[in-house]
Every structure is written in C-alpha cells, then in structure tokens.
Amino acid sequence: MAKTATPYQPQLLDPHSAEPQPVNPKNGRSFKLAELYQLLDCHTVEVIRLTSELILIVDEEGKFRNPAYLNLLATYLWHQHQPAARGVDSIVGRAILCHDKQFR
Q1: Per-residue pLDDT tens for 44-71?
Q2: Is 82 helix (H, G, I), strand (E, B) or coil?
Q3: What is the pLDDT of residue 7?
Q4: pLDDT above 70 covers what percent of the chain?
Q5: What is the pTM of this model?
Q6: ∠77-25-66 over CA atoms, to 5°?
C-alpha cells in the first residue's frame, strides 16, 4: 500500500455504502485530476473545505445525474463543519475526504 504524505488516510464516501473506503493517490502523495475523475465517476470536481486541513472532493455535476444519489455521510460531514450549509444544500454522488495537501 502506498504511503501518504500526511497522517490522514483518504476515504472514498460512496452513497451506496455505509462505510467509508480507504483510497490512496497513485503516486502516494496527492491525487491528480484524472484519477479523481475515475474514482468519483465524473468529469468536473469541486473542493469543499471542511477544516483548515480537511477537504471533500465531490462531483460538481452530481445533481444533474439521473438518478442522483444523496451522499448522507458526505453531507453530514459538510454540515457538521460548515453549519451555514445546513438546510441549504447537500452532496450528491461519490466524494473523497482527504487532507488538502493530498490534492494538487
């Protein structure tokens, strides 16, 4: 298993799974766009900052899919760290939770 450059283990949050799945950047340090597109099954990503170090990387166009699957875990994390988003928006589709240094 590749070693990451930070103490954080990136996690794939899939709306079809109750458990996060560990994932690692192919180069062992940071995710590149091509691999994020593959992991998230998308063409455009959006970065949502949770804390000064943690981010969610999500499918920017996830809400336009049919069917669109609500990601309860990613939405919960977002709402816990950014209360202004509560009741306003949600995350749809797959998401990656990681340290901001793991996306360059």
Answers
A1: 999 999 999 999 999 999 999 999 999 9
A2: coil
A3: 73
A4: 94
A5: 0.89
A6: 55
Helix (H, G, I), strand (E, B) or coil at 70: strand
Q: For residue 46, list its beta bridge partners.
A: 58
The whole-chain average pLDDT of the chain stands at: 92
CA distances from 8 to 4, 13, 24, 43, 69 (A): 8, 15, 10, 25, 26
The two beta strands, 11-13 and 21-22, are antiparallel
- Tell whether the model's pLDDT for residue 4 goes beyond 50: no
β-pair partners for 54: 99
**Amino acid at residue number 9:** Q
Sign of CA dihedral 33, 84, 6, 10: negative
- How do beta strands 45-49 and 21-22 pair? unpaired
Are 59 and 45 in contact, with CB atoms under 8 Å apart?
A: yes
Helices (H), 1-104: 33-40, 72-81
Contact 102, 3 (CB under 8 A): no
